[in-house]
Amino acid sequence: MKLNEIREEARKKLAAMHARSERDLAALKTHLFGKSGVLTGLMKSLKDLPQDERPKAGKEINDVRVELAALCDKKEKELHRLAIEEALNAEQIDLSIDKPCRTVGARHPLNTVKNRLIDYFIGNGYVVYDSPEIETDYYNFQALNVPPDHPARDMQDTFFINDGILLRTQTSAGQIRLMEKFKPPIKMICPGRVFRNDDDSTHSPVFHQMEGLVVDKNVTLCDLKGTLESFAKFIFGEQPTIRFRPSYFPFTEPSVEVDVSCFKCGGKGCRVCKNTGWIEILGAGMVNRKVLENCGIDPDEYHGFAFGMGLDRITMIECAINDIKLLWENDVRFLRQFK
Ligand code: DAH
Is residue 28 a contact partner of residue 72, using CB atoms and an 8 Å limit? Predict the structure, then answer.
């Protein structure tokens, strides 16, 4: 084959190539430059020419080889670009298609309330402490001044796992764990799940509490009252007042039950407050000196107050929910109402 024919034929073939001609191009390259390719063949046949013609002929062949190699390279890049373009066109997304929207979830009301309370306390300088759900008898009861066989254990029907190990019945256990590790001044809240063998429309075997603990020098019952008053205003609005009723908890002395005036009727009596004008929201008191001693804190130097509230209960009051199970069933028709 003559050099010119080779060159013209290669050019024609290159010109006819399109996006999917990668194989044709590879074949053409082998045909031209391969071991038994036509240009390689011409080079080899130089030796049959007379000595003085060889340099010129060699240069001609080489020029064509360089030219065609450059054209092949250019084509290769072009084919690559064309292939990408074609793929992009084929994969185009049609944004005009009318598809049903995905529904967007909402936060569970219990979490909304919990997060609001956490925000409130963090804003007031408290730290959030996470304490285990599986506890020992010591942290859940004994260190909180509830010895074995103490009648106060009856208030909390406990799920025991085995001897001395139980599902915590109260986040108060977090008080002990924290005070063992950190010394005063202390300001902490401990939110979490708690467990009791209880089951009716206002009690569930699993529910949520938030514990609060403040220990420092010169902490008094007035500090507790002020703290809970501003807390009540934060959740129930500006009007409510709070009242303390004397109560008993082994880990506080004195102990109180705390009510807020009904945010719905302002204290006149309605369904929300069961016609009493007051809603019970939490238990509290001054940390019992035995509890401080159990944690290696000197009760003559430091005093503290503690409080514990039921998050499910506060959520039920806030959202006017009458059955605690609704918080567990996760029925979307119920949850949607709190978007
Ligand atoms: N742990 C108590 C309960 O579950 C609630 C409680 C009462 C917590 C008084 C306290 C407190 O910290 O001071 O019934």
Answer: yes
Mutate which of 290, 307, 311 for ligand 1? The one with the most ligand atoms within 8 Å of its CB, which is: 307
pTM above the 0.85 mark?
Answer: no
291-338: pLDDT as tens digits? 999 999 999 999 999 999 999 999 998 888 888 899 989 898 999 888
Question: Which residue has a Cα nearest atom 3 of ligand 1?
Answer: 170
For residues 235 and 7, give the distance between their C-alpha atoms in angstroms, rounded to a whole number. 88
- Express each pLDDT in 253-276 by its tens digit: 999 999 988 888 888 998 878 899
Tell the burial category of 194 from Cβ atoms under 10 Å away from its Cβ (0-12, 13-18, 19+): buried
Long-range pairs, 90-99, Cβ under 8 A, ≥24: none
Q: Give 279 Cα–ligand 1 centroid separation in angstroms.
A: 17
Instruction: Please give the radius of gyration of the chain, using alpha carbons only, rounded to the nearest integer.
Output: 41
Measuring from each residue's beta carbon to the nearest atom of ligand 1, which residues come in under 6 Å? Answer: 170, 172, 211, 249, 252, 283-285, 306-308
- What are φ and ψ of residue 242, in 5° steps? -120, 160
Q: 109-338: which CATH architecture?
A: 2-Layer Sandwich (3.30)
Q: What is the pLDDT of residues 234-255, one digit of tens each?
A: 988 877 789 999 999 999 999 9
The strand pairing partners of 255, in sequence order, are 247, 285
Residues with Cβ within 8 Å of residue 69, at least 6 apart in sequence: 33
Count CB atoms within 10 A of the CB of residue 86: 13
